[in-house]
Design a protein that fits this description.
Oligomer: single chain
CATH topology of the largest domain: Udp-n-acetylmuramoylalanyl-d-glutamate--2,6- Diaminopimelate Ligase, Chain: A, domain 1
CATH superfamily of the largest domain: NIF3 (NGG1p interacting factor 3)-like
Helix content: 25-40%
Number of helices: 9
């Protein structure tokens, strides 16, 4: 039987926890990793509905991108939905592990998955982060690369909606730049508005990231950078790619457990069109 500890050891050779940002809480979240894994589920978020799905599917290990314990619980009052979720995980012996900004920074991780989905070529890190502690290779958060063919701004926005299978996005563009052609693209999954200057410095025509705020958007417009905000949830690509990665390691190590992807949609926002 393969334990969670064995899987975690293999994963952390791929995305070392030391690559995570200092504020982040990656690694074991809940449970006992020494337990054998019988059924593993990958997910972007661990929310109450995700936990209910795991229980229904008899999952005993959840591998998530977003941590569930950014802040310590002040009490364990299970009338609080978050605490109730922890109680359900413990009662059902479900281990939860999260790889967040270490997976964002690792070579072959989140931002490479997003860049590959966009079919970007000749990619480089957007925000260099030194070298991987294990491989000694350069790493960085985000990616910058080239589209095969240049696109008009609206065409590129439509392209992003198709790639990420979303019904809407926020387009931030200076009126003077609406006829601009997009060829060089920067992307950073999650919330990356503070790195738009690095996108400019890397010659990006457009920058894709989520959770852009009002004042940052004004600064981006003044800088003549086209910005696509498709939301934070495009990182759901992690559920599929993590499942593929773990399945590959299963073949290499003769691990015998079921791997599945969460089918729960954890996107909190709905686009309403008048």
């Amino acid at each position: 039987m393969t334990t969670g500890t064995e899987l975690i050891k293999r994963f952390e050779n791929f995305a070392d926890p030391r690559l995570a940002e200092k504020w982040d809480h990656v690694g074991l979240q809940v449970g006992n990793p020494n337990q054998p894994i019988n059924r593993l589920m990958t997910t972007l978020d661990v929310r109450p509905e995700t936990v209910d799905e795991a229980i229904a599917k008899k999952v005993d290990f959840i591998f998530a991108h977003h941590p569930i314990m950014f802040h310590p619980a002040k009490d364990l009052d299970t009338r609080n939905p978050q605490n109730q979720m922890y109680a359900k995980l413990l009662a059902n012996n479900i281990t939860v592990y999260a790889a967040h900004t270490n997976l964002d920074t690792a070579n072959g991780g989140m931002n490479d998955w997003l860049a590959a989905a966009l079919r970007l070529r000749q990619t480089i890190p957007l925000v260099p982060a030194g070298k991987d502690p294990l491989s000694n290779k350069p790493v960085g958060m985000g990616r910058v690369g080239e589209l095969a063919e240049e696109m008009a701004v609206q065409e590129f926005a439509d392209y992003c909606m198709n790639i990420f299978q979303i019904k809407g996005l926020r387009l931030i563009v200076n009126p003077l730049d609406k006829s601009k052609k997009i060829k060089r693209v920067a992307i950073l999954g999650g919330s990356g508005q503070e790195f738009y200057q690095q996108a400019l410095e890397n010659g990006a025509d457009a920058y894709i990231t989520g959770d852009v705020s009002y004042h940052f958007a004004h600064d981006m417009i003044a800088s003549h950078l086209v910005v696509i905000d498709p939301g934070h949830h495009i990182e759901v690509i992690a559920a599929h790619e993590l499942a593929k990665l773990i399945s590959r390691w299963q073949d290499e190590n003769n691990w015998q457990f079921a791997v599945m992807e969460s089918q729960v949609n954890t996107e909190p926002f709905t686009f309403v069109v008048k």
